[in-house]
Amino acid sequence: MSRLVVISNRVPMPEKNGTAPAGGLAVALQAALEERGGVWMGWSGKSSGTRDPAPLALTERGNITYALTDLTKTDVEEYYHGFANRVLWPICHYRLDLAEYGRKEMAGYFRVNRFFAHRVAPLIQKDDILWIHDYHLIPLAAELRQMGFTNKIGFFLHIPWPPADVLFAMPVHEEIMRGLTHYDLVGFQTDHDLENFRGCLVREGYGNAIGDGLFSSHGRTFKGGFYSIGIETAAFAEFAKKAASSVLVRKARQSMEDRDLIIGVDRLDYSKGITQRIDAYESFVSRNPAHHGKVTYLQITPKSRSEVPEYEAMQRTVAEQAGRVNGVLGTVDWVPIRYINRSIGRPVLAGLYRLAKVGLVTPLRDGMNLVAKEFVAAQDPEDPGVLVLSRFAGAARELKGALLVNPYDIEGTGNAIARALTMGQEERIQRWRGMMDHLLVKDVQHWCDAFLEDLTTDQKKKRGLRQR
Ligand code: ADQ
């Protein structure tokens, strides 16, 4: 079996004893690396002012080498905060209005990708399989090919892929499209993303769809597929069951005083639809006096990317909005919204999911959304809560037992909250069972195995891809 070389912007480092850090992706990729042996390379998160960053920091854990590189301050500004998070992230989330395209940032993005290629090159062996992750590193395969590497290289995009009319508004879209054609397999989260990619490729003549999931471009043939990422479903369910009786979760339950709990858990990001969600909750409370004093909406939102101006502004907006709703609708003995602006340990998070009657996952656009899957996995099978899910999350393609909403429809989402809170036990169990059965099969291990199998299987032997 060939070795695996994983390259991603950041690397979740394992504990000293080799245990993978929390999070399904880290666990699944580490398991794949342990099985095959190999390398996980990425940015250390550190930046220096010098032009020549320190040599790669190598850490050996069993048969895996973790390789971290520093970047310069300019690199971080242009590649990471600049092109990746201020151009590709908004464009891929259909937010043309927020993309701030600049030639300097674009040049920095391609420069850092070339730098990554040169850094990882000495660690790559002849038969290694390479798996590159996410929008930060799209041009990496092209750089490696230019250096003469003929290894199998796969790419997985964790965020959505937009339709042609959105992508083509980005001045540098041609280079980005061409970058993807240098992979052997390009994987997306959903069939919709794959369809959008096909549209982009064919419409501008960057390549052709030649059937069976194969594309041709400038003499190369590559595969495209969709591989919906999952979580460690069985382990998370077990975790939530235990966590529900932990001291912290019991205290949280007491502090709710038998009120129904509605929970939202998201990084602070405009794509997650948090302000629209608070509006929807306000609409629900205003129109349903019978629920006054009987419900608590807990929104847990750690800060992210504070260096990007939109994110900083959002911190203020959401805090003010939650304060305003509490001021208008709250009473001396009832606070309608509890807003927490920090990370929470996974055991407590799992216990809170289980405690909640409703999970509100209403992004305006999301590649997949693992919170939706974690919420389902954490439920009590005898008395499960209801998932209210945006139709614009990748997870909506799979979780058919959720109440699907359009997050831009504030009243409609408010109505779904009311419906979820009053849904009978039989219907809740029926909806939950279907989703849980699906998630137990399509877990993160399944995602990882499916991608690697398609990447390593010879195209001639296997025309066409299964739908994963
Ligand atoms: P993200 O945008 O980060 O990931 P998501 O899929 O929701 O979004 O994953 C977030 C993770 O962070 C979840 O595991 C969640 O439990 C955790 N988390 C969120 N808030 C937390 C808090 N306050 N405390 C502790 N943990 C918290 C990107 C894409 C997604 C895609 C994933 C994986 O944007 O669409 O699902 O990658 O491919």
Radius of gyration: 23 Å
**Helix percentage range:** 40-55%
Mean pLDDT across all residues, rounded? 93
Structural class: alpha/beta
How many individual helices? 16
Major sheet: order of its strands? 3-4-2-1-5-6-7-10-9-8
Distinct ligands, ions and cofactors found in the model: adenosine-5'-diphosphate-glucose
What's the number of extended β-strand segments?
16
Query: Major sheet: size, sense and barrel closure?
Result: 10 strands, mixed
- DSSP strand (E) fraction? 15-25%
Label the overall shape.
Answer: globular
Termini Cα gap: 23 Å
Low-confidence stretches: none
Pathway: Glycan biosynthesis; trehalose biosynthesis
Pfam families: Glyco_transf_20
Enzyme class: transferase
GO molecular function: alpha,alpha-trehalose-phosphate synthase (UDP-forming) activity
Describe the structure.
This is Trehalose-6-phosphate synthase. It catalyses: D-glucose 6-phosphate + UDP-alpha-D-glucose = alpha,alpha-trehalose 6-phosphate + UDP + H(+). Its EC number is 2.4.1.15. GO terms for molecular function: alpha,alpha-trehalose-phosphate synthase (UDP-forming) activity. This protein is of the alpha/beta class. The chain contains 16 helices and 16 strands. Strand 12 (295-300), helix 11 (309-329) and strand 13 form a beta-alpha-beta unit. Helix 2 (73-92) packs across helix 3, helix 8 (233-243) packs across helix 12 (346-355) and helix 10 packs across helix 14 (410-422). It is globular. Bound molecules: adenosine-5'-diphosphate-glucose. Adenosine-5'-diphosphate-glucose (ADQ) binds at residues 23, 158-159, 229, 265-267, 300, 302, 343-344, 349, 366-371, 374.
